[in-house]
């Protein structure tokens, strides 16, 4: 038998289901219009982010092996009216946090090994994502059910990162990066990490 609290929600859930069914019957044009209206209300446009070739040191290979992975790093992209928005401040802040964990100048020391990883299926480098909260929460009406919910606009940009001297693990990197942010900045900014996975390069 279901919990009493769930039983009490029955009428509301039935109304939500009816509203969702009604939305699903709308034409493509009607759905697009509803999406654009919601987007205008929330200001939630896609960030204008382009990429540039960069280089990182993998976490599973000693720095003495001089292995660099070729990756894409974020840079400012083109802003398209009503479709994308500038996230230049997030990209700049992210670059400060990443520091030398990712570089844009190709290594040129004798013996350096560059490994192209872009397009390798099953491989993804360690990546940190910087998230910025934009303003205070506001009430927004769902275009699916008509219910009101609290919404906080957030902008996020991610970047591959790699190993640096004195910081051999991803956990150590994340801890150091988080500690760069002051207590006041953490009210607006937050950082998450996706660990390196996939192909391992063996160097003898």
Structure characterization notes:
With 204 residues, this protein is of the alpha/beta class. Helix content is 28%, strand content 29%. Strand 6 and strand 7 form a beta hairpin. The protein has two domains: 1-42, no CATH class; 44-194, no CATH class. It has helices at 4-8, 10-24, 28-42, 88-98, 170-180; strands spanning 46-47, 49-56, 67-76, 84-85, 113-116, 127-141, 148-160, 189-194. The chain contains five helices and eight strands; from the N terminus they run H-H-H-E-E-E-E-H-E-E-E-H-E.
Which SSEs are present, and which pair or pack?
Layout lengths: L3 H5 L1 H15 L3 H15 L3 E2 L1 E8 L10 E10 L7 E2 L2 H11 L14 E4 L10 E15 L6 E13 L9 H11 L8 E6 L10
Parallel strand pairs: 1-4, 3-5
Antiparallel strand pairs: 2-3, 6-7, 6-8
What are its keywords?
204 residues, alpha/beta, 5 helices
The helix count comes to: 5
Order of helix and strand elements from N to C terminus: HHHEEEEHEEEHE
Q: What is the radius of gyration computed over CA atoms, rounded to a whole number of angstroms? A: 22 Å
Low-pLDDT segments, ≥5 res: none
Strand order of the largest sheet: 2-3-5
Helix content: 25-40%
**How would you classify the quaternary structure?**
single chain
Main β sheet profile: 3 strands, mixed
N- to C-terminal separation? 62 Å
In total, the number of domains comes to 2
């Amino acid at each position: 038998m279901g919990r009493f609290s769930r039983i009490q929600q029955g009428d509301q859930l039935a109304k939500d289901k009816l509203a969702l069914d009604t939305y699903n019957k709308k034409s493509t044009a009607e759905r697009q219009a509803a999406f654009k209206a919601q987007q205008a209300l929330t200001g939630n446009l896609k960030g204008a982010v382009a990429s540039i070739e960069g280089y990182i040191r993998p976490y599973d290979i000693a720095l003495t092996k001089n292995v660099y992975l070729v990756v894409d790093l974020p840079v400012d992209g083109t802003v398209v009216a009503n479709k994308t928005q500038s996230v230049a401040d997030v990209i700049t802040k992210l670059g400060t946090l990443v520091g030398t964990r990712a570089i844009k100048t190709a290594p040129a020391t004798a013996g350096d090994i560059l490994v192209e990883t872009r397009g390798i299926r099953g491989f993804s480098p360690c990546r940190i994502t910087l998230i910025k909260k934009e303003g205070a929460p506001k009430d927004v009406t769902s275009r699916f059910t008509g219910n009101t919910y609290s919404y906080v606009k957030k902008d996020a940009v991610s970047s591959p990162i790699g190993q640096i001297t004195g910081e051999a693990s991803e956990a150590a990197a994340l801890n150091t990066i988080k500690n760069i942010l002051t207590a006041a900045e953490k009210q607006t900014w937050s950082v998450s990490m996706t660990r390196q996975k996939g192909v391992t390069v063996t160097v003898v």
